[in-house]
Amino acid sequence: FKGHKLIFTGINSEDGVNVVSSKNRKTPDSVSAQNLTKNNVLSFSHQYTPTKNFSNKLTASWYTNQGGGSVESEFLDPTLNRKNFENVSADTLAPYLLGFKVRSEFTFEKYSISDKLYYYWGNNLFEAGAGVDFLKTIIDFKFDLDPELKAIFSANPGLRTTINSIKDIKNYKRYNFYLQNNFELSNNLYIQPGLRYDYYEVLDKSYFAPRISLSYGIDDLTTIRGSWGIYYQSPGYEKLRDQNTFYDLTRKYTEFLESEKAIHYVVGLERWLTSEWLLRTEAYYKDFRDLIVQQIEQGGNYFTERVPGGDIRSVSGWTRPVRNIGDSLTQIPINNSFGEAYGVEFLLEKKNSERGSNFSGWISYAYAHANRYQRRDIIPFAFDQRHTVNIVGNYSLGSNWELGFRWQYGSGFPYTEPIGLKPRILLLDTDNDGKPETPVVATRASYANPNSNEVIFDIDYGDRNRFNARKPAYHRLDIRVTKATKLWNYDWTFYLDIINIYNRTNVVGYSFYVEDDLTLGRETNSMFPILPTIGFSVKF
User: What is 4-350+416-470's CATH number, 1.25.40, 2.40.50, 1.20.120, 2.40.170?
Assistant: First the structure.
């Protein structure tokens, strides 16, 4: 259509899991898991461009992510060394198994309507847009945990949270509007002020976010850029899967809750070294405010101490557990944290713009810090990575053959290293009123001598000891060879991908356990080894 462009998009996907442990399994764990997840996307866009100075794009979309599942499991106490319990029957290991059940149903649905307008007037560009999201979330999670598993969670400050069943249905809307204009003040000076408005019905609050960017051309090859802006992010159940945190977003808790806020400061320099080589450097600072965390309530933790000269494996070697005032996380969201991220980035890019040039690619390096401040503690964000390097290249070999490669390096992400071991403490119902109230040092039959009981030990992560260590550096090299050809009047591309070609063992994390001599053991969990794949694509 003259001046009109219509775009339709549709995606449907389903993922299902149905797992039951084999009777012939080598490990003592058993699991029964069922899960079905459906994702659907429908989108329609109408772009109208009657003149070269004006364009408008209207988009309507629908997205849904829904599913449900259940997990029932008996697994080996995570404080034990799994290698010592392979090929042993579950009946024999019954005292060492913990139970866990969870049933879940969820629906995240969003209808969106948005409109964006572009208008060139003189040497200036005006842009405006508006949109509304209609969101519906339904969550229903039911938990049933073994008391000893709860004790393990209590021993880890990173997991010390109230794991309650939660059920909620929430319908809410988000409105937004923005406008900005890129002004050409002179041949080499441009400024772009802007303003965004957001209304989050889940909070019943409105926010205005001003922003501005500036670019100045020192000469034909060098440009200085800078920007400043305020950004807001609303809480919502649709973020549950990304953040892995349960928040109770009922009105009584969101009435005084604010949206998370970030203020960005960016300055950069761009320089063309030749007609093909571009050097860019950028420094940034991000100020995070009103970060949402789980409310902490005073809880009842228990501790015990060694009896001088006593047997560490025997209950008599420990004092009677006493109550200690400790922290317990709830599902109540509050704005009780702030943070910052800052760093510098360098990019050297080779563009394939000259005739006869077969190579293109880029090299980048980033140095960064990202910390949050909470209750007088400085805690790095999970994504805090000090050094990051990327080297990417593509080389045309001729005859429609192409070789590509990518090397990535990243210094270690933070993780929590335990400080030692401590006895597991359980609450028992000694007065038969149906409520456990008496703390005792937990014991079980000795694996070496089933006729005697010995103290069960948990991993001790310390009280406020989060992210106190770093994983090893991550690096890998991937290569890709492609061949383009024409078959049956269609354009085909065949490729060979090899991920992690030198088979680097990159660490995902660690599993900690108690050794037989009551020292702390550690097992490394790694990412994929070398992984070759072949495939093809066709355009028709």
Answer: 2.40.170
- What secondary structure letter does DSSP report for 448? S
CA distance 95 to 476: 43
pLDDT band of 242, cuts 50, 70, 90: very low
What span, in angstroms and rounded, lies between the C-alpha atoms of 115 and 132?
Answer: 10
- pLDDT, the chain, mean: 84
Is there a contact between 440 and 521 (Cβ–Cβ < 8 Å)?
no
CB 410, CB 388: distance < 8 Å: yes
Tell me, rounded to whole angstroms, the distance of Cα 257 from its chain centroid: 23
Which residues, at least 6 apart from 110, have a Cβ–Cβ distance to it below 8 Å?
A: 61, 62, 63, 64, 133, 134, 135, 136, 238
State how far the Cα of 117 lies from the Cα of 217, in Å rounded to an integer. Answer: 28
Reply yes or no on whether the pLDDT at 397 is more than 90.
Answer: no
pTM reported for the whole predicted model: 0.80
Residue spans per domain, the chain: 4-350+416-470
Cα-based distances in Å from 236 to 136, 260, 267, 365: 10, 12, 32, 34
